[in-house]
Design goal:
The protein is α/β, with parallel strands linked by helices and 639 residues long. It contains 26 helices and 17 strands. 50% of the residues lie in helices and 11% in strands.
Length: 639
């Protein structure tokens, strides 16, 4: 007799199809799992047991009272501090339901469970349709970094504010290897999230200052659009500055013209000194030291700079050759109605990531990596000939060698050192930052359509790559010259057009005016909120002030673009508001206490916005000065 399909399963499946269609289809197509047996527990509810390959049986829940077991388990969790709960195992879902029933609508549960039959059994047993619709219940059923990044990236802010990783008892007895691996991969993902988050908070003002100061080049230099898929069918070599680069860099001479050479900014000078002119060089670092990678180069030849607009502005000034800047949202906000459509690339943590994304964008296949160690090969931090070695030169003597300086550079961050496996299966040191970069690369390699060749000949092992020497890769893939017409854009492109500068000046002046108006409204609102705090016990007076606040709020909404720009400079304002909202939801306060919490939240938020507006005006004033200077230098064209 055919088992009737319960309504709970249909509701859950419908919700899951909207949230994750592929996974829903996978569960829907799943055949009956004979190793799983669902049976009544002693208290009358359902429990589940599994027949293991070795003939043993284990219960995934209590045989007597699975709900009571779930309640005791959740009693031990600190749900007030944690907005995300990661569970190894799901069983029939009693623990998950208990967590959702005790927490706010902000809580997210991530389930690590390799047995699809168990997940389906849980969705047959308990209604999670509302949580599935809102992506508050997320399943990870295989060890896959790319899948983890795809499913959890949207929840990363909540995860950073509080996450707990808990284990159901049966996961230690069944598929234990999977759960050990998943917990390790999840821990690595959290390292990546924290590093990205800290970078965002600490650098947001400097980043937008760089973008604003690069606006002249942003509007006057060409975008990357005519490079899209231009080199389909040809290989690319992405050159980074890892210590293993010395092993194979000399082979780039024979690769020139047979592969597109994309260099990270750190290796541009060493390549030019070798007599190899890369086709592209990438730059994105906000640190002013980046300009040293370009200083002193008198002729950039046909090398094209592909830069994120957030790159420190002296780099764009010092690079006097052909350059293109990528799409940037803050830049477009500054331009207002004069913005024009242009392509960008995915956000990368390093110039090496940016180089890889450029190689994908121009359509190359395979993408060959060299100098991409992501670890301290031979206890070295930098490749020989790097600009940093030149900076160290004055300190070198018989008691302080280059090797000593390299080792000091590594152990300086001993607190964040960790070990990883290199391409030969040996252990080498890396650090948390480079380990984070490795996570991002492995996610990218899992999702790219191109073949990725790791020809670094050293460094950390990278999942999703084929290991070769550079000589082997060139012999197999770089066998014939790339047609010259593929590079003809270099001669036909106008590399600097100053005619938009007058309009850019007017738009920046308009943005400054809008931000000043927005700041005035914020200050007025903050003053009214101060009054409201003293009137919570007098509802009639409180409501009068609320009316005034609502009137100003409508004016603030008319300055939405200014608000977005201020928040991009002061990410801390949005973070504080986000944290306050989550905490209020978790506490579920009501009445006067909730009103006080809301006023505190809004007052702090407005104070941060006022400060952020000051910082934004300072940034836009600096950008305006650079536009005026460029207009003077190009007066004959601009007038």
């Amino acid at each position: 007799m055919k088992t009737p399909i319960p309504d709970i399963w249909l509701k859950n499946l419908e919700a899951l199809y909207k949230a994750d269609m592929r996974f829903a289809q996978e569960l829907d197509d799943l055949p009956k799992d004979d190793c799983l047996v669902i049976e009544p527990a002693q208290n009358g509810s359902m429990t589940i047991k599994a027949h293991l390959p070795d003939g043993k049986e284990i219960y995934l829940h209590s045989k007597y009272n699975p709900q009571s077991e779930a309640k005791k388990f959740v009693d031990g969790l600190d749900l007030k501090k944690n907005l995300v709960v990661v569970l190894s195992g799901i069983g029939l879902g009693y623990h998950v339901r208990e967590i959702f029933d005790r927490t706010s609508s902000q809580t997210i549960v991530v389930v690590l469970e390799p047995q699809l039959g168990v997940i389906r059994a849980a969705l047959w047993n308990i209604d999670f349709s509302e949580e599935l619709k809102k992506n508050r219940l997320i399943f990870l059923h295989r060890v896959d970094k790319g899948l983890m990044h795809a499913k959890l990236s949207a929840a990363s802010s909540s995860m950073i504010l509080g996450t707990t990783l808990e284990t159901l008892v049966y996961s230690k007895m069944w598929n234990a290897d999977f759960h050990i691996q998943m917990r390790a991969v999840f821990t690595e993902f959290m390292f990546y999230c924290r590093m990205s988050f800290v970078t965002l908070l600490s650098n947001c003002k400097l980043t937008q200052q760089n973008v604003a100061n690069n606006l002249v080049s942003y509007v006057c230099c060409p975008p990357i659009d005519n490079l899209r898929r231009r080199f389909v069918g040809y290989p690319a070599i992405v050159v980074s500055a890892g210590p293993s680069l010395a092993k194979n860099m000399h082979l780039l001479k024979q690769a020139k013209g047979k592969a597109v050479i994309i260099a990270a900014q750190t290796v541009l000078k060493p390549l030019l000194n070798l007599g190899v002119e890369p086709d592209f060089v990438t730059s994105l670092d906000y640190n002013p030291i980046s300009q040293k990678f370009f200083e002193g180069i008198k002729d950039f030849g046909q090398v094209q700079l592909i830069a994120e607009p957030k790159v420190t502005w002296p780099v764009v000034d010092v690079f006097t050759g052909k350059k293109r800047l990528l799409y940037n949202e803050f830049a477009e906000q500054c331009l207002g109605p004069m913005h024009q459509k242009r392509d960008g690339l995915r956000a990368g943590s390093t110039v090496a990531h940016l180089s890889f994304y450029l190689a994908e964008y121009i359509g190359t296949d395979p993408i060959i990596l060299i100098g991409q160690d992501l670890g301290f090969s031979d206890n070295m931090y930098y490749a020989p000939g790097n600009i940093v070695h030149d900076m160290w030169a004055v300190e070198l003597n018989r008691f302080c060698t280059l090797e000593t300086k390299e080792w000091e550079r590594i152990v300086r961050n001993r607190d964040i050192l960790r070990k990883t496996v290199d391409i030969h299966g040996r252990q080498i040191f890396t650090d948390e930052q480079m380990f984070t970069y490795l996570q991002q690369f492995e996610r990218d390699f899992a999702n790219t359509a191109s073949t990725v060749i790791d020809a670094t000949e050293g460094g950390a092992r990278k999942r999703g790559t084929t290991i070769m020497t550079l000589a082997q890769a060139l012999k197999k893939y770089a066998t014939s010259p790339i047609p010259l017409e593929k590079f003809d854009f270099s001669q036909t492109t106008q590399w600097f057009d100053p005619t938009p500068l007058p309009q850019l000046q007017r738009q920046l002046e308009k943005r400054i005016e809008e931000v000043r108006e927005f700041q005035t409204l914020c200050k007025k609102t903050a003053g009214l909120l101060d009054k409201l705090e003293t009137l919570i016990d007098t509802p009639a007076e409180f409501n009068k002030i609320i009316i005034q606040v609502d009137e100003i709020r409508s004016l603030v909404n008319a300055h939405l673009k200014a608000l977005q720009m201020v928040c991009s400079v002061s990410a801390l304002a949005e973070l504080r508001r986000f944290m306050h909202d989550r905490q209020m939801e978790a506490r579920e306060t009501q009445g006067k206490e909730r009103a006080k919490n809301q006023l505190t939240r809004d007052t702090e938020y407005l104070q941060a916005l006022v400060k952020g507006a000051d910082e934004l005006i300072e940034i836009l004033d600096g950008a305006l000065d650079r536009v005026k200077k460029s207009k003077e230098e190009n007066r004959c064209v601009c007038e």
